[in-house]
Write a structure and sequence with these properties.
Length: 491
RNA sequence: CGGGGUGUAGCGUAGCCUGGUAUCGCGCCACAUUUGGGAUGUGGAGGUCGUAGGUUCGAAUCCUGCCACCCCGACCA
């Protein structure tokens, strides 16, 4: 395969698209807006799933599965929800095809559904319709359920992983007796997402709440984690919603309290999607290709034997390479020995760099004689010759160091790209001349937020949770404000 | 969905303006020599030129519709 080089600094979009294809993560399918996730890309998604799923289970959740289809009438039950999703729903209207007059397969008009089915864009409605039957008493609460699923949102414009018509995600849907408990759940899951993003993806995130304008359709409060990509655009990486009693009321889900009164149930929902693949790619990768954090790499270490021409030397090198491979495997490291003899070492080096493998070990005759290996790390491109003594421990430490370094690098980049401004001129100047987040005072009204969006294309990514109270004036209106919010151009 | 652009072998491309059945590189197959940063030579296979029509003796090339992708908007995880 000829490698098409696209520089990140020259055309970020082209670089991203090219990287997704070259690194064998995904490709466009025959279906508009839908992608094929290839085995290597899916392996990374599976690692994400495993890490998230463990955290969900650790916080008491169970997995379940609800239907792909939702009766249309369910959507009309929660008014703001239908407003939010109606414009992007795929609808099933018929259940049969037949042979048409001209030999073409056509939809059988006689097989029209009584009630159309919506392909889920999210599952609150079907799930809350189900919860009505599950919840009768305070003893049935809480319900802590997650589902791994595909959903469909008919977006105007799609991009590999970042926004596809069909995407994979998980959606947690919990039911609680009290508002306090539901809010605690919402916040807990936000922490789970932030922990996952920072410690597994090595992507620093800002935890915050969305403004009323950016809130999930049907939520009282939307918490989010926001990341900053290498091109300086923000990416919403996960959301956790406090839904109040909106869905309980819409679907009439009540429970009997200890005092035998009937109360509506309190709800949360939370989700992250294959968009995280996009976040991962855009946070760390470079002109040589993908850069994967060790905690997520399907292959953490690749061993490349440098095979000489003499048959006996070949065997010596291979034996040594195999020995090191099993030593690392025994330590629980995901290691691959690439002993193919028909591609050159140089080709393999470049190929595994493209695939983002964190550590490469090369072993040749020199190393066999000296009891050494050459170790190269993907993140810094540094190479060093190491003694094979305790190689497993050394590699284990190196992987941990790479994980930390990637996070630190991304964190430094993010912090360098938060621009604090205090008036409208500074605000505009920052948006025009710099990329990243702009930290500014805002008067708290949707009107101002929309006006700023119209004037600058920047949106309020979130009201950060850890911000300190600080009196100031809104950059646009001059009205009083008590806290800074983060603006940015976003994906 | 609006504006702009692109579509030729698995990948990247030339040819299109000025119509005559397609160029080059990588990859692939065979053999040999190679192997510490994308090896070299020799021989070979692979294309209904995105798709459906139209014009023409003849269409990759001209015209029309459609599809897909990219960029910029609007919408959004």
């Amino acid at each position: 395969m000829e490698i098409k080089k696209v520089k990140r600094s020259e055309d970020y979009s082209a670089w991203y698209n090219n990287l997704v294809k070259q690194a064998d993560l995904a490709e466009h399918s025959a279906v508009k807006g839908c992608m094929v996730i290839k085995p290597y890309g899916y392996a990374i998604w599976e690692k994400m799933q495993a890490e998230l799923d463990k955290r969900f289970k650790d916080t008491g959740h169970q997995n379940a599965y609800f239907p792909l289809f939702i009766p249309k009438s369910f959507f009309s039950k929660e008014a703001s929800h239908v407003d939010g999703f109606a414009k992007e729903c795929a609808v099933v209207t018929h259940y049969r095809l037949k042979n048409g007059d001209d030999g073409q397969i056509v939809v059988d008009e006689d097989a029209k559904l009584e009630e159309e089915l919506i392909v889920r864009p999210t599952s609150e409605t079907i799930i809350w319709n189900t919860y009505r039957d599950w919840i009768k008493s305070h003893r049935d609460l809480p319900i802590l359920v997650n589902q791994w699923a595909n959903v469909v949102r008919w977006e105007m414009r799609t991009r590999l992983f970042l926004r596809t018509t069909e995407f994979l995600w998980q959606e947690g849907h919990t039911a609680h007796a009290t508002a306090e408990e539901a809010i605690a759940e919402t916040k807990q899951m936000l922490e789970v997402y932030a922990d996952f993003a920072e410690n597994i993806l090595a992507v620093p995130v800002v935890k915050g709440v969305k403004t009323a304008n950016e809130r999930f359709a049907g939520a009282l409060e939307t918490y989010c984690i926001e990341g900053l990509m290498q091109d300086g655009k923000a990416l919403q990486m996960g959301t956790s919603h406090f839904l109040g009693q909106n869905f309980a009321k819409a679907f009439d889900v009540k429970y009997a309290t200890k005092e035998n009164t009937q109360e509506y149930v309190w709800a949360t929902s939370w989700g992250v999607s294959t968009r995280l693949m996009g976040a991962l790619i855009m946070s760390h990768s470079d002109d040589e290709g993908l850069v994967l954090p060790p905690n997520l790499a399907p292959i953490q270490v690749v061993v490349v034997p440098i095979l000489g021409k003499k048959e006996e030397e070949k065997q010596l090198v291979l034996d040594k390479a195999r020995a090191i491979t099993s030593t690392l495997k025994a330590k629980g490291i995901a290691v691959k020995l690439d002993d193919r003899d028909h591609v050159s070492p140089g080709f393999k080096f470049a190929d595994y760099e493209l695939k983002g493998v964190p550590v490469r070990i090369a072993i040749g005759m020199r190393d066999v004689q000296n009891e050494t290996v050459e170790v190269a790390r993907r993140d810094t491109k540094e190479k060093q010759v190491m003694s094979v003594v305790d190689i497993d421990t050394k590699i284990e430490h190196l992987l941990a160091a790479i994980q930390v370094n990637l996070f630190q690098k991304a964190l430094d980049f993010r912090d360098d790209h938060i621009h604090v401004v205090n008036n409208w001129d500074e605000f505009n100047h920052a948006l025009e001349t710099k990329t990243g987040f702009v930290s500014a005072h805002w008067d708290g009204t949707t009107e101002t937020e929309l006006k700023i969006k119209e004037l600058t294309k920047a949106t309020i990514r979130c009201v950060p949770l850890n911000a300190t109270a600080e009196n100031g004036v809104c950059v646009l209106t001059g009205n009083p404000s008590t806290q800074r919010v983060l603006f940015a151009k976003a994906y």
